[in-house]
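input
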Amino acid sequence: MNPENMQLWLENLHSTKEKRSMPLLSFPSISLLGCTVGEITSSAELQAKGMKAVADAVPSLASVSFMDLSVEAEAFGANIAVSDTEVPSVISTVVTDMASAEALRVPTVGEKRTGVYVDAVKMAKQLILDRPVFAGIIGPFSLAGRLCDVTETLVYCYTDPDLLNVVLEKTTDFLVAYAKAYKAVGAQGVVMAEPLAGLLSPDLAEEFSEKYVKKIVDAVQDEHFLVVYHNCGNSAVQIAESILRTGCAVYHFGNAIRMQDMMQILPESTIAMGNIDPAGEFKNGTPASMKQAVFTLLDECGKYPNFVISSGCDIPPDAKWENIHAYFNAINEYYKK
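output
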C-alpha cells in the first residue's frame, strides 16, 4: 500500500482487526528531549525532533503534531501566556463588538508562530518515513471562542449571531489557508480540534460550527489529505448528526462522552477514535489502571470494525511515559489474547 494514498490507508485501517492506535501524543516528548513546553512551542526544529522521538518510542498509527490551540488566535492578535510546563493559553480577547469584528484582520500563514508549526511538520516529514504525519489545527468555532472570549461567544449565538458569523467567516478563511500550507509541505492530514462546539445544541452546532468546518473540509480533503475532526465536548453525542455532515474522513472524541454511545450512532463505514482519559490515565494513572481502562474500552467498542482506540484529547506534557507505554502494551495484549 502506498502510504501517501490516505483513502487506501483508511480502507486498510477499517479492514484490519488488530488496529494500531493514534493518540494525540506530542507534548510528552519534552521529557524525551530535555526541553520545556515554552521552548518546544517556539522551535520548529525541537517540534520535529519531538515528533520523531515519539514515533521512535511508540508504535502509533500516525504521527500527530503539537495541539497548541493558542497559535491561530495569537496570529489574529490575541495575547498568550507561555510557561515551561503548561501548553500556551489565550489571555486576551480581540473582538468585543461588531466594529472590532469587522475590523479583524485575517493573518497570513507564517505570521507569529504559525510559520514555526508549518516548518515543524515539514521537517518531521523528512524524519518520519514509516507512518503518516498529521498537523494539528483548531476548529473555526473554537478559534472564534478564543478571539471573542468563550462565554461571550456562546452568548453571541443567541444575542448577536451576525457578529459571530463575521468572525467565523474570517477564522474559516484563515484555517483553509493554514490547512493548505500544511498540505503543501507534505502533511497527510490535519487533526482539527473543535471542542467548543461540544457545548452547543444541535441547531446551534449546525449554524455556527458545521457549515464552517465543512467549508474547510471541502477546500482541502482529498485522497492524499484527510481531515480528522476532534470534539471533546460533553454534548458530542447529541450533535453527532451535525458533526457527521461536515464530511470529515475520521472523527475523534473525548472522554466526556461514553464512546459506546457514539459508536452506536456512527455509520460502520466511518472511522471513529477515542477516548482514554488524558489526565486521569496518561498523567495521573498507573500502568495497572491504564491496562484496565484500555481493556474496558476495547471490550465495549472493539467489536465495531470502525473503532480505533485513542486518547480522549491531547495528552498533557507531564504525562508519565510508563503509562504511555502501558497504554500501547495493553492494546497489543488485548488484541493478542
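quick obs: The beta strands are 63-64, 80-81, 89-90, 133-138, 189-193, 226-231, 250-253, 271-276, 307-311.
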